[in-house]
UniProtKB/TrEMBL annotation:
It catalyses: hydrogen sulfide + 6 oxidized [2Fe-2S]-[ferredoxin] + 3 H2O = sulfite + 6 reduced [2Fe-2S]-[ferredoxin] + 7 H(+). The keyword Disulfide bond does not apply. One of its GO terms (molecular function) is metal ion binding. The keyword Iron applies. Keywords: 4Fe-4S, Heme, Iron, Iron-sulfur, Metal-binding, Oxidoreductase, Thioether bond. Residues 167-320, 419-555 form the Nitrite/sulphite reductase 4Fe-4S domain. Catalyzes the reduction of sulfite to sulfide, a step in the biosynthesis of sulfur-containing amino acids and cofactors. The lineage of its organism: Bacteria, Bacillati, Actinomycetota, Actinomycetes, Micrococcales. Its cofactor is [4Fe-4S] cluster. Residues 1-28 are annotated as: Disordered. This is assimilatory sulfite reductase (ferredoxin). Its EC number is 1.8.7.1.
């Protein structure tokens, strides 16, 4: 009897990942088709020549929901649409006929003249709205497309722009807010930031990436640019033979699959830094996964390749030379938010100001520009902690500056809780939001300040409170001591109300003076928005009771 065997099924071919160098450039989804059909940067001409003249209804939907982002423009959420089941709404029902506009501020560096122009644009064209974002941008709202060319003209007249402030592009370059002025700086990152911006930003060859690409550069020992959550970061360090330069990190990112960046173990000189940046962004462009948008960040490629291969491909295919091994930068010993008054290396002072949850207004920004000039300063910096710093204040001007800034709602000596709180855009303007964030946080901080007025001095260190309006992580919820992720929850009466999933125990080196860690979700722990102050009070009291024994927030 002959035995019959079932023939082995041929292996199903793996689906292509959409890596250009391996699978070719054929688009595998509608986003990739949109980008292949026309580079996002090209929409500027249509905005100037057609849409701004013929109004909102003339905008091609593919431009409106795609390419507008390449110039920092997103439609904002229609007013009054509740959080939650927005998936059933069409984009037209969910979105307003107005835009949010992000002004790109590489390294956070602003002159008073530039700040005044942003303030005036806000007052004239944005209903006096302005938010300091946690990526050193300023975000305006209520922008009408008919005003966009005039806004660009005013920004560009003072050297500002909105180029690639959003979209699948190299986003704003985070830079140390005290670059070039700090007494203990290891290396001034300003030349590297300026050169990357000059060579690569707004260039079509880097304007079709798999998704966004985030950069951070600092030479400050506090590592003040949240480097662990960027696609590429250059962190100041000193090589025993080559002197001051940078330690190279890649592959950080938050959102649904948070991952901290990793060191490639390579030392990068100031001269090499722009080329290394070009190499990493090129790897992302050429090898990054494009088929599935939720796997299209560099962190997924790093997870599959590992650091050794990433470094090898960088050196072999893009640089053409080997980078030397580099030393691990020292752990920060101070918080990197630059709050308060600090002496600069030239004997003047810089003053870090907190606006509650980053919320300011055009009027406030214009007044701050006037105030800085009246105290002899023409330079400011935004920070990745939603703060703004005035530089170059003479010692005898500090007291008056601090007092007058306070009358504008900008506090040099905020309570620990106000200093710690950052919030994303939330339901007020963001189409993805489920709950309110800014007002919730501002309100909660005021209550927490009251409840814990005699307690904050007992905390052994700063803490961070971050509020997100949805499962995305624009306000870095997983990296906070106490993070709140917006969602609808069911209260005791069985009603759906705004609330938050709690994350505890996250940390970044530049804010927490220690090892970076991602916070963990406390299973089942959800807090209604109006219970947030009570919850923070409980956590802080428990923490300060146990912190003497060195326990973390997550313990
Ligand atoms: Fe919008 Fe969500 Fe980002 Fe907040 S975290 S700005 S709600 S996408």
């Amino acid at each position: 009897m002959t035995q019959t065997t079932t023939p082995a099924r041929p292996k199903r071919a793996a689906k292509p990942n959409g890596q250009w160098k391996i699978d070719g450039p054929a688009p595998l989804n509608t986003n990739e088709e949109m980008k292949a059909a026309d580079n996002g940067l090209n929409v500027r001409q249509r905005i100037e020549e057609i849409y701004s003249k013929q109004g909102f209804d003339s905008i091609d939907p593919e431009d409106l929901h795609g390419r507008f982002r390449w110039w920092g423009l997103y439609t904002q959420r229609a007013q009054g649409i509740p959080g939650g089941k927005t998936a059933t709404l069409s984009p037209e029902e969910l979105e307003d006929r107005y835009f949010m506009l992000r002004v790109r501020i590489d390294g956070g560096a602003l002159s008073t003249q530039q700040l005044r122009v942003i303030g005036e644009i806000s007052t004239e064209f944005a209903r006096d709205t302005a938010d300091l974002t946690d990526r050193q941008n300023v975000q305006l709202h209520w922008i009408d497309v008919v005003d966009v060319p005039e806004i660009w003209q005013r920004l560009e007249a003072v050297g500002l722009h909105t180029t690639e402030a959003c979209g699948d592009v190299p986003r704003v370059i985070l830079g140390s807010p005290v670059a070039g002025i700090s007494k203990d700086e290891i290396i001034d990152p300003s030349p590297v930031i300026a050169e990357i911006s000059r060579r690569y930003i707004g260039k079509p060859e880097f304007a079709n990436l798999p998704r966004k690409f985030k950069t951070a550069v600092t030479g400050h020992p506090s590592q003040d640019v949240v480097h662990e959550i960027n696609d590429i970061a250059l962190i100041g360090t000193v090589h025993p033979e080559l002197g001051a330069g940078y330690d190279l990190w890649v592959g950080g990112g938050l959102s649904a699959n948070p991952r901290l960046g990793e060191r490639l173990g390579a030392f990068v000189t100031e001269e090499q830094a722009p080329d290394v940046w070009e190499g990493i962004v090129s790897i992302f462009r050429d090898y990054g996964y494009r088929r599935l948008r939720n796997r299209a960040r560099l962190k997924f490629l790093l997870a599959d390749w590992g650091t050794e291969k990433m470094r090898q491909v960088l050196q072999d295919e893009y640089l053409g030379y080997e980078l030397p091994d580099g030393p691990l930068p020292d752990q920060p010993t101070e918080a990197g938010d630059h709050s308060g008054v600090h002496e600069q290396k030239d004997g003047n002072f810089y003053i870090g100001l907190t606006a509650p949850a980053g919320r300011v207004s055009g009027t406030t920004l214009t007044a701050l520009a006037d105030l800085a000039e009246a105290h002899g300063s023409t330079r400011l910096r935004t920070t990745p902690h939603q703060k703004i710093i005035a530089l170059d204040i003479a010692e005898d001007q500090v007291k008056d500056f601090v007092g007058t800034a306070r009358t504008l709602g900008l506090e040099a000596y905020p309570s620990l809780f106000k200093r710690s709180a950052i919030a994303c855009t939330g339901i007020e303007f963001c189409k993805l939001a489920i709950v309110d964030t800014k007002d919730t946080m501002i309100d909660a901080v005021a209550k927490i300040e009251e409840r814990l007025a005699d307690h904050e001095g007992k905390l052994p260190r700063q803490l961070s409170l971050h509020v997100n309006g949805c499962p995305n992580s624009c306000a870095r919820v997983q990296t906070a001591d106490v993070g709140f992720k917006g969602q609808l929850i069911t209260n005791e009466q069985g009603e759906q109300v705004s609330g938050f999933q709690v994350h505890l125990g996250g940390a970044l080196a530049g804010f927490e003076n220690g090892e970076a860690t991602l916070g963990r979700t406390v299973r089942g722990l959800k807090v209604a928005a109006d219970e947030l102050p009570e919850y923070v009070e409980r956590v802080v009291k428990n923490y300060s009771a146990s912190a003497a024994e060195g326990e973390s927030f997550a313990a």
